[in-house]
Amino acid sequence: MKSAALCALLFTAGLLSAAESTMKTNASAPAADPAACKIDGPVSACGLPSNVVIDMSKARVQRTDAEWRARLSPTQYRVARQQGTEPPFKNEFWDNHTDGVYLCVGCDTPLFDSRHKFDSGTGWPSYWQPLEKIFVGETTDTSHGMTRVEVHCTVCGSHLGHVFDDGPKPTRLRYCINSASLRFLTRDAYTSWVKQRAGTDAAPAPSAKP
Length: 210
Ligand SMILES: [Zn+2]
Known about the structure:
The protein is of the alpha+beta class. It is 22% helix and 19% strand. Strands 3-4-8-7-6-5 form a 6-stranded antiparallel beta sheet. Strands 2-1-9 form a 3-stranded antiparallel beta sheet. The protein is globular, with a radius of gyration of 17 Å. The N and C termini lie far apart (45 Å).
């Protein structure tokens, strides 16, 4: 099957990410072609939305629903606070190759580093490890007849995406993350941001070294 047809089939089924896991472990399967996978209309990130219930009662950052809506754009709110999704190749950071750090859109905790980002071909930002695993919580997601591992920010509970075990070396992990859950700072901006925040209690101590 040609990749374009395969993509169309997968998108129609809404199972791109689940199927992709199989594709990447099957050498005879065609790789997803990003160009061929460009389509119109809503397509769920990382396969399908998550239906998991994240326990946010112990999260360090607590906001009322009104505060969340005031802080976030409608898309950010839908993705980060309602376990929503965004379309592949039509999100802010899937093709961002600038050196820098990705922060949680909900609480500014540094979550991912561009040095750990790779081109997965899925159309979503993909990383082979988080900056600090303690800030990326995992929940088993059995929605839509699949078993996936949902990932979220442990500081504020914002939904990030899913993690799969078909990533590159050295971890073999693929953190498939929604751009809407992230805020990007270039390396210089991040360094300045860290200096500004030094000595404050506004956010967890970031560990990404310039
Ligand atoms: Zn957060």
